[in-house]
Amino acid sequence: METQDNLPGEAASRPCWSCGAAISRGDSYCKKCGKGQDSHVGWQYTHWGVVVLTLLGLGPFSLIYVWRSPVISRNAKIAYTGFILLLTWFVINSVYGMWTAVQSLLGGAQVY
After folding, report:
1. What is this structure's pTM?
2. Is-contact 6 19, C-beta < 8 A?
3. Which of 46, 60, 69, 99 is deepest in the core (most CB within 10 A)?
4. Contact indicator for 72, 47 with CB cutoff of 8 Å
5. Average pLDDT for residues 19-39, to the nearest whole number?
6. Which residue intervals of the chain are DSSP H helices?
7. Mean per-residue pLDDT for 55-81?
């Protein structure tokens, strides 16, 4: 018994990476949510997009794009997560060090 998705001569369907709706293999965009498929994903889901978002101030919030990306492999996602968390720790530690240096220069005065 053939279903409508698997008619002879038609491309088989696959799920959209974003919403899960069935789309045909030849479609570049999902008809339900409008997200690009395969090479048509948004720049923020690519390797260079994640790096740009992380370095331009999104910091640990760029992990949302890392883990939702259909382009980045699982091992790369784990590596990006470790790098982004390490970078976040470094930035927080540096800001804290600067804050304590300012406090010691001011003689322990409370700054509001």
Report:
1. 0.67
2. no
3. 69
4. yes
5. 79
6. 47-53, 63-68, 74-105
7. 90
Most confident range (mean pLDDT) of 3-17, 23-37, 75-89 is 75-89
Nearest one of 44, 48, 58 to 91, comparing CA atoms: 58
Percent of the chain with pLDDT over 90: 30
**Residue 23: CA count within 13 A, CB half-sphere:** 21
Question: CA 6 to CA 24: how far, in whole Å?
Answer: 10
> By three-state DSSP, how is residue 16 classified?
coil
Residue 77 and residue 35: Cα distance in Å, rounded? 20
Domains in the chain: boundaries: 13-42, 46-107
CB atoms within 10 A of CB 16: 21
Going by C-alpha positions, the residue among 54, 52, 48 that lies closest to residue 81 is 54
Distance, CA of 16 to CA of 23 (rounded, Å): 6
Q: What is the token pair recorded at 68?
A: 């939702």
